[in-house]
């Protein structure tokens, strides 16, 4: 489905460019296609007015980190500490600031001095011309974030933001340097090189932050492959491990795992549709022989993915803890809700379970169902809605598209309120600070409306005004979610 949507988006892009080249219309007229209907405008106005009244009636007092000083007595009290931590208070999970106050991480990713493409060039030049120096830019972005109700910055943000407010900018990329799958970003978690490289990466990237009081915690990696539901593959992790070289430790472990799961050659043949005469022939099978076609084979493939995850997490965390024993481990940033078995496994290793959730609604149905068994905090570290009303093409299909900025605001509040009224929710980071430019079309159309601002550093005011009121209401919703 993703491939079909992506192909459709590219076709639409091509048709639009042909129209532009022919002079059929100009970009400014794109805004006319998505005018705000009266019903949406009325809903926007009414909800914004309600949020403003509720926030004015119960203003929050904040500590220097953004923690809730005048939180209800029902949340109890926490002692100050050296670093951010998580605690269950009033029946709900919270981050706790070093000053001892409850905190919800409300952030944005990619708050970046280099601009929308993270590189020297025209997008960075816009910021240099406006702010002059990086320090002035950083303080201006801090003021914006606070004005819009945010209190954190997420990954891919400039390091100049880290002294100014809480952050989780570090993705260790623990699996980035290990022996890799021939064509995918997948490491051999049983290799000695993975252990060595994970420790090396942790030392290099975590050492500067060991005493950083603004650091919420570390992400180990980003959107690794754990199964056929990943957007980069339709193969199980077991199939992919069988594509490693013959002498790879992970491939040997995969063979050992399936043999032990079957017990006998006859059972293996029945489960996998093969015709082995003896176990010595197991190593001659191709990865295609390990595509699950039966319920039993699917269960084995799923169990292997969990075993690989345990191996990965244990090694990566050991490397990090040797450098920094104090800060939280925020997980490995699953690309979506990873399934109940993987959530159970993650709960054994991580302080917080993090995931992206690009959908019209957060994965509350799935988390609600397992939360009684897995009592852990959850963090949505990437999500977004894009508007057609900005004149952008929106060709990347991993976030919902709505008609206009008012509809985007209403989608934002529905999503945030649904998630933050849950006792397990501890934060969310919007993807992202600025729109994605599309460099294939110079000065005509700029890619995807992920941003709170255009790449020219201009805020989407009908949207961000609303976002600020929503963000200032979140702690009250969450306090009610623990009851």
Written account of the structure:
By secondary structure, the chain is an alpha/beta fold. The protein has two domains: 32-227 and 308-481, TIM Barrel (Alpha-Beta Barrel), CATH 3.20.20; 240-295, no CATH class. Helix content is 38%, strand content 8%. Strands 5-4-12-9-8 form a five-stranded parallel beta sheet. A three-stranded antiparallel beta sheet has the order 1-2-3. Helix 2 crosses helix 12 and helix 9 runs parallel beside helix 10 (340-347). The relative contact order is 0.14. The model is unreliable at 1-33 (pLDDT under 50).
Write the layout of secondary structure elements.
Blueprint: H1 2-21, H2 38-57, E1 85-89, E2 92-96, E3 102-103, E4 105-108, H3 122-131, H4 134-147, E5 152-153, H5 192-206, E6 217-218, H6 237-241, H7 249-262, H8 265-272, H9 295-321, E7 328-329, H10 340-347, E8 353-356, H11 364-371, E9 378-382, E10 386-387, E11 401-402, H12 405-420, E12 425-430, H13 461-471, H14 474-481
Parallel strand pairs: 4-5, 4-12, 6-7, 8-9, 9-12, 10-11
Antiparallel strand pairs: 1-2, 2-3
Helix pairs in contact: 2-12, 3-4, 5-9, 7-8, 9-10, 12-13
């Amino acid at each position: 489905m993703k491939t079909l949507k992506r192909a459709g988006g590219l076709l639409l892009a091509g048709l639009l460019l042909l129209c532009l080249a022919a002079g059929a219309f100009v970009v400014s007229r794109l805004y006319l296609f998505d005018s705000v209907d009266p019903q949406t405008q009325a809903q926007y106005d009414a909800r914004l007015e309600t949020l403003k009244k509720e926030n004015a009636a119960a203003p929050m007092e904040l500590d220097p980190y953004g923690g809730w000083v005048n939180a209800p007595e029902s949340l109890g009290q926490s002692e100050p500490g050296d670093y951010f931590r998580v605690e269950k208070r009033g029946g709900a999970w919270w981050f706790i600031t070093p000053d001892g106050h409850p905190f919800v991480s409300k952030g944005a990713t990619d708050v970046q001095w280099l601009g929308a493409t993270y590189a020297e060039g025209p997008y960075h030049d816009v910021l240099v011309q406006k702010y002059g120096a990086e320090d002035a830019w950083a303080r201006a972005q801090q003021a914006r974030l606070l004005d819009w109700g945010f209190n954190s910055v997420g990954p891919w943000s400039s390091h100049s933001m880290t002294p100014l407010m809480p952050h989780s900018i570090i993705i260790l990329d623990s699996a980035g340097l290990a022996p890799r799958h021939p064509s995918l970003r997948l490491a051999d978690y049983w290799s000695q090189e993975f252990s060595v490289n994970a420790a090396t990466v942790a030392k290099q990237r975590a050492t500067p932050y060991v005493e950083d009081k603004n650091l919420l915690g570390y992400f180990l990696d980003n959107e690794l492959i754990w199964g056929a539901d990943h957007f980069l593959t339709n193969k199980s992790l077991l199939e992919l491990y069988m594509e490693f070289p013959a002498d790879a430790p992970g491939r040997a472990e995969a063979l050992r795992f399936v043999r032990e799961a079957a017990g006998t050659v006859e059972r293996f043949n029945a489960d996998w549709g093969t015709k082995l005469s003896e176990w010595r022939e197991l190593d001659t099978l191709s990865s295609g022989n390990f595509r699950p076609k039966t319920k039993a084979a699917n269960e084995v493939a799923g169990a292997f993915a969990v075993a690989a995850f345990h191996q990965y997490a244990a090694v990566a965390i050991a490397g990090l803890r040797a450098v920094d024993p104090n800060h939280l481990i925020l997980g490995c940033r699953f690309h979506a809700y990873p399934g109940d078995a993987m959530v159970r496994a993650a709960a054994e290793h991580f302080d917080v379970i993090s995931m992206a959730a690009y959908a019209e609604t957060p994965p509350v149905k799935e988390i609600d169902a397992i939360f009684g068994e897995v009592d852990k905090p959850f963090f949505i570290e990437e999500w977004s809605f894009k508007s057609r009303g900005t004149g952008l093409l929106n060709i990347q299909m991993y976030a919902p598209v709505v008609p206009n900025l008012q509809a985007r605001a209403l989608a934002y509040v529905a999503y945030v309120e649904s998630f933050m009224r849950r006792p397990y929710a501890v934060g969310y980071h919007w993807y992202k600070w600025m729109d994605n430019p599309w460099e294939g079309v110079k000065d005509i159309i700029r890619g995807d409306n992920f941003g709170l601002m255009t790449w020219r550093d201009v805020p989407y005011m009908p949207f961000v005004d609303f976002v600020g009121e929503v963000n200032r209401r979140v702690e009250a919703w969450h306090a009610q979610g623990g009851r």
